[in-house]
Each structure stands twice: as C-alpha cells, then as structure tokens.
DNA sequence: TCCTCTCTGTAGCACCTGCTACATGCATGA
DNA sequence: TCATGCATGTAGCAGGTGCTACAGAGAGGA
C-alpha cells in the first residue's frame, strides 16, 4: 500500500531522469534497489506501473504551477517567465516526458493520447485565464494560449536537441516582442488590462 | 550496389510509415520481402542502414522544398503556406520522423543530434532568405526563422497528438495574424519589402 | 570442366523483454 | 502451537533483439 506509493515516486523520478520510451523493468528495479519481481508484485503489470507514475507526474505538475509575480505585466513578459520555468531542471524533465509521451501517442493513440492531454491540462487552463487577466479578449484567449503552449513546446524541443541553445532563446525573445507589439483589440471586451507595450 | 540504394528507398518508406524508434530488422525485412540476413548483408549493420535511410530522407526533403507561389505576399501568408505543406501526408511523416529523431537525440546526443540538425537544414536556410525577401531586416531574420520553425514544430506536434486537431489550426491562425500585424521596422534595412499587413 | 565470387536461405548465438511458478521467511491472530 | 497471509528470492518461460556461422545456388571466367 504505502510501499507502493513510495515506489511510484521513485519510479517517476527514474522516468524523469531516463525517459519513458526505453523503460525496462530490470534496470529500473536495480536503480530502486528492488527486483522486477517486486515491481510487478506491487503494481501488477508494467502498464499499471507506468500509469501510476504518470498520474503522479500530473499531480506534481499541477502542484508546481504558480501564478507569476507582480513584475509580470504583459503577455510577452508572461511568456518569458514561462520560458524561464521551462528551462529549469524540472521543466526540462517535464518537457522530455511530454515529448516521450507524444511519440508514444503517435504510435498508439488509443493508449497514450489521454495521458498527453492530462499532462498538458495543468498548464492550458491557467494560461487561458491568465491571458484574460492581461487584457486578451476572452474570444481570442484559447487560440493564443494554444499558440503560446505550442511555441514553448517547439522551442523547448529545439533547445533540448540543438547544439546551439542560444538559438531557441533568441527565437523566444522574438516571440515575446511580437506578443507585446500586438495591437490592442479594437473591441471593448477586456476588463482592466494592464498591457504596456513598451518594446525594446 | 544498386540493390542497396533500392533497399534504402524502401527502408525510408517503411520508417516514415512506422517510425524510427521501435524499428526492428525482422518486421522491416518482412515488409520489404527480404530477410534481416539480407539487410545486414547489404548494409553491414542496423546503424549504417538507418544512417543511409536518414541521408536519403534529407535528400528527399531538400528536393521537396519549393519557393511559395506569387500569392504569398506576407510573412503570415508564408507561415500559413508552410503549415498547409506540413499537414500534407509527406509533411506529417517528416514531422513524425523529426520527432522520433529528437527523442533519440535526447537519449544519445552524440549519436543523433547531428541527424536532427541535418534534417532541419533544408528548411532553415531558405526560410531565412525568404523572410528577408518579405522585408524582414536581415538582423532579425534568423531569430524570426527559428521562431517560425519552432512554432510550426510545436503546433504540428500538438495537432499530431491531440484529439482536437482544430485547436492547432486556430493557434496557427493566431500566429499568422500576429506576424502580419507586426509593426514595420523603423530602420531602413529592408530592400523591396512587399509587406501588406491587411488583417482580417 | 572446374574454380571463384556474389548472393541468399537456415539455424543458431547471446542477450534482453515482461511475466510467472514455486518455495521460503516472517509476522500476526486464533 | 499452529495456521494464515504478506513479502521476497530463485529460476525459468516464451518471445523478441542484432548479428553470425555455415552451406549452398548460380553466374562468370580460366
């Protein structure tokens, strides 16, 4: 019972470190000072073991989402803030896990795409809400949130893989500038938008 | 000799269809009406087989890059054009291959990151040049090109995996609008920029 | 005709995979 | 004291992996 939850934590740590795709029970068990026999005893199967580790990952990620500080005033600054968080070690690990899950989902969508969506959930909702707070019209917020998530994904991937990591940083800066230079909507949707498009 | 090049083509087709990550010689050989024995005879090892298939993929990709038609006049339209190409079957296959390679590169950078970079090359260079033609100052073009590539990657990934494929489309439209609403640079870098920010 | 060289089929190697049968130690409750 | 149930180690299963040893088939040149 409790041992199982404890093992799930360690399994997740191992997965964040070594990736989900090549995961094999025996090396995993060795790193956790157990045997594959014991892992299967506690979890029943590899599939359930992975499932519990992923559920735990989602809970950890949801708990780590924090609203930005008061110095974040524009959408561009928000994006820079998210980028900085994504480049921290836990952010990189989460990105790698997300990437592994995406690849698995392209191979077996029925089995994995739910997990991808679930891991993304803790970011998408708060981001939409946050954008509205920054004066983005509610009608545009979902698409803009998805754009930001997608761009952060793509650039994180680039930075993860490419030899020249400064390239992704420069691209993100261009993105943030682009967002802050965005013209204010003509309509009167927004409430107290504290947008401040001071560029450069 | 010739048989080997012919096999490389078929191997690449198979890899584009089934992914690079779980690639196994026996199912591959069966699909090609040969045996693993023969594949190893012609290529020497699995590693070299994959290497030749990837080199071929790069050549194919480079050959498929074509300048956009005359109806593409703004950066936003260019991005929409690239997006449409990426959603075609070969574009999706290339994206999946790029994704698999990225995952492999996070696990063994020394072995794979070169291949990722090489596969990306045929797009990055022409995109930079294309941006300059559209009036983007030469100093900003590289970062903007990387931003566009990264965003296309991230949104393609989203669309590949997510149940709701319209989400990525909406996000890309927001991106294109954002690019076309971009303020013209104050400096006088650009040559004949035919920018025409007619939005909506 | 014989020899050699290129190609290919069969069988197998050592190793890895998830998973399981069996036996055992150990603590707890009747 | 005995029995029950939980936890764990050992050994092994069937199937997969890349790769190889060996034997042949067939074509071409001497």
From TrEMBL, chains A, B:
<protein>
    <submittedName>
        <fullName>TetR/AcrR family transcriptional regulator</fullName>
    </submittedName>
</protein>
<dbReference type="InterPro" id="IPR009057">
    <property type="entry name" value="Homeodomain-like_sf"/>
</dbReference>
């Amino acid at each position: 019972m409790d041992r199982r939850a404890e093992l799930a934590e360690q399994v997740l740590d191992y997965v964040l470190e070594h990736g989900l795709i090549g995961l094999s029970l025996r090396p995993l068990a060795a790193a956790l000072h157990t045997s594959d026999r014991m892992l299967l005893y506690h979890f029943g199967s590899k599939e359930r073991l992975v499932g519990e580790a992923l559920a735990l990952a989602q809970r950890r990620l949801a708990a780590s989402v924090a609203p930005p500080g008061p110095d974040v005033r524009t959408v561009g600054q928000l994006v820079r803030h998210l980028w900085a968080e994504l480049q921290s070690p836990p952010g990189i690990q989460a990105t790698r896990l997300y990437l592994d899950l995406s690849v698995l989902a392209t191979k077996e969508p029925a089995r994995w795409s739910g997990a991808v969506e679930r891991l993304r959930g803790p970011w998408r909702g708060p981001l939409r809400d946050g954008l509205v707070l920054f004066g983005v019209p509610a009608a545009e917020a979902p698409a803009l949130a998805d754009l930001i998530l997608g761009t952060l994904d793509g650039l994180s991937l680039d930075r993860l893989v490419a030899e020249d990591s400064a390239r992704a940083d420069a691209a993100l800066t261009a993105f943030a500038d682009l967002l802050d230079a965005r013209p204010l909507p003509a309509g009167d949707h927004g409430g107290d938008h504290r947008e401040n498009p001071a560029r450069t």
